[in-house]
Design a protein that fits this description.
Order of helices and strands: HHHHHEEHH
Distance between the termini: 43 Å
Number of helices: 7
Structural class: mainly alpha
Helix content: 40-55%
CATH architecture: Orthogonal Bundle
CATH topology: Cytochrome Bc1 Complex, Chain D, domain 2
Number of domains: 1
Number of strands: 2
CATH superfamily: Cytochrome c-like domain
Largest sheet: 2 strands, antiparallel
CATH class: Mainly Alpha
Strand content: under 5%
Shape: globular
Length: 145
């Protein structure tokens, strides 16, 4: 029964942001996003969204698939999808198997602040992809026989 209730809410959340980030490229939004990011996101995602640990994803890579698309129309649609995912993830948090990986921010950040953070992240320079996670490292240190 709960699954039947979640799907319409998920679809509503994604469609509510179908037009994408209205703050993209806006200098004042990027500045606000930097302030909000440093105050709320940097402790897990790094000061420049640089993924200080494998558990916190490299937010600078959110658009990487979209940027590989040749069609500008497909790129725009892809960015809208990523924008919707970002808004939903920040609002609802990230929970897997009952473990909270990121708390929900819906009662802390406004929609404007979330879009501003997204705009700030998009201005951060990319780095080489991280190939190993902490699980990989643990497995290398303690291999099973």
């Amino acid at each position: 029964m709960h699954r039947l209730l979640i799907l319409p809410l998920l679809l509503a959340a994604l469609s509510a942001h179908a037009d994408g980030n209205p703050s993209r490229g806006d200098a004042s939004a990027i500045a606000l996003g930097g302030q909000v990011y440093q105050a709320n996101c940097a402790r897990c995602h790094g000061e420049q969204a640089s993924q200080p640990s494998a558990e916190a994803p490299d937010l600078r890579r959110l658009n990487s698939f979209c940027q590989q698309l040749k069609s500008t129309a497909l790129q725009a649609r892809c960015l809208q999808d990523v924008d919707g995912y970002f808004m939903m993830a920040v609002n609802s948090g990230k929970v897997r198997a009952g473990i909270i990986y990121m708390p929900p921010w819906r009662d802390v950040l406004t929609t404007q602040e979330i879009w501003a953070v997204r705009s700030f992240i998009e201005t951060r320079p990319l780095a080489a992809p991280r190939l190993n996670t902490s699980v990989d490292t643990e497995h290398q240190q303690h291999p099973q026989h």
